[in-house]
């Protein structure tokens, strides 16, 4: 993610961030003395692939199946699921690149997908915005309930995502890491704002908590879950990377780097599982299963 600068006296600091030369060793060989977190990261990526791909495909199927009775936020959840399916396809290439390959060409492909994953909080922010308007500004929400507005916003987010991923793919843009920092911190601040605003609105809906409108309760729970995803999955890189100079280069490269990105990438599985945890799915040939609708 680009929080790291390439120094001529260092072989490399972050393969995920930049291409470094010479490519004499694999990433795994560079961390041979401390491989535990790197092995954990690769294991988590494959869990992400085997769990995230079917979970996100099921989310896409449910949204299509329930198209006539879906939440206004489902359009953003759909696009987020598509993005996560694409990202969950890369672990085999990532394993080969980290353990076996010394070429720099495959890092261009990986960095493009990393850039797509970096931008996923933008879709989460859109979900929060939709819930915020629904609860705090219900009349405006009613006027803007036409999904064409949301489709246009989703397309704008995709344009930003692809532009960001392409720029990250180049890997040599000066201070490009600041874009990611600003994006994550901005999304985090926006989640907090939505959360506080919806909570305040809930407090105004009646003298007792039991009198709060159930739709507003559900909206608040949705934003709270998304905020938890942001804190757990996306905040670690922002919290850890600015303090890279407090760690030795080897510890940061082999431990901190993969802990932060492992947690962030695993959101591709956590997000659809949270969606499925409340949705009722009628499986062909099986009993009723309670599975999530973030609405």
Characteristics:
about 70% helix; disordered C terminus; about 300 residues; elongated; Rhopdopsin 7-helix transmembrane proteins
Descriptive notes:
By secondary structure, this protein is mainly α. It has a single domain, classed as Rhopdopsin 7-helix transmembrane proteins (Up-down Bundle), CATH 1.20.1070.10. It contains twelve helices and two strands, in the order H-H-H-H-H-H-H-H-H-H-H-H-E-E. It has a two-stranded antiparallel ribbon with strand order 1-2.
Strands, helices and their partners?
Elements: H1 27-30, H2 36-65, H3 74-87, H4 91-100, H5 105-118, H6 120-136, H7 138-143, H8 147-170, H9 177-203, H10 214-240, H11 249-265, H12 267-276, E1 279-281, E2 289-291
Antiparallel strand pairs: 1-2
Helix pairs in contact: 2-3, 2-4, 2-11, 2-12, 3-5, 3-6, 3-12, 5-8, 6-8, 6-9, 6-10, 9-10, 10-11, 10-12
- CATH architecture, please? Up-down Bundle
In terms of quaternary structure, the protein is single chain
**Total beta strand runs:** 2
Compute the separation of the termini in Å.
31 Å
Total helical elements: 12
CATH superfamily: Rhodopsin 7-helix transmembrane proteins
Q: Structural class from helices and strands? A: mainly alpha
CATH class: Mainly Alpha
| Residue-averaged pLDDT | 79
Largest beta sheet: strand ordering: 1-2
The CATH topology annotation reads as Rhopdopsin 7-helix transmembrane proteins
C-alpha-based Rg, rounded? 21 Å
Biggest sheet layout:
2 strands, antiparallel
């Amino acid at each position: 993610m680009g929080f790291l600068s390439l120094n001529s006296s260092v072989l490399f600091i972050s393969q995920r961030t930049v291409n470094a030369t010479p490519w004499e060793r694999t990433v795994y060989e560079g961390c041979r003395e401390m491989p535990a977190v790197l092995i954990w990261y690769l294991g988590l990526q494959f869990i992400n692939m085997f769990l995230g791909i079917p979970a996100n495909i099921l989310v896409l199927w449910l949204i299509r199946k329930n198209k006539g009775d879906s939440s206004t936020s489902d359009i953003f959840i759909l696009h987020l699921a598509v993005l996560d399916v694409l990202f969950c396809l890369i672990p085999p290439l990532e394993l080969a690149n980290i353990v076996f390959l010394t070429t720099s060409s495959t890092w261009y492909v990986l960095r493009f997908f990393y850039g797509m994953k970096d931008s996923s909080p933008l879709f989460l922010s859109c979900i929060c915005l939709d819930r915020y308007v629904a609860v705090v500004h219900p009349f405006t929400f009613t006027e803007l309930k036409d999904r064409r507005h949301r489709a246009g916003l989703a397309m704008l987010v995709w344009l930003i995502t692809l532009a960001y991923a392409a720029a990250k793919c180049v890997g040599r843009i000066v201070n490009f890491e600041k874009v990611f920092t600003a994006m994550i911190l901005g999304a985090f601040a926006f989640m907090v704002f939505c959360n506080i605003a919806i909570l305040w609105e809930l407090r105004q809906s009646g003298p007792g908590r039991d009198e709060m409108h159930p739709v507003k309760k559900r909206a608040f729970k949705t934003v709270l879950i998304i905020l938890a995803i942001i804190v757990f999955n996306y905040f670690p890189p922002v919290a850890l990377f600015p303090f890279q100079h407090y760690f030795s280069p080897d510890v940061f490269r082999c431990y901190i780097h993969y802990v932060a990105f492992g947690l962030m990438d695993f959101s591709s599985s956590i997000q659809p599982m949270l969606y499925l945890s409340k949705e009722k799915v009628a499986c062909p040939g099986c009993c009723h299963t309670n599975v999530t609708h973030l609405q």
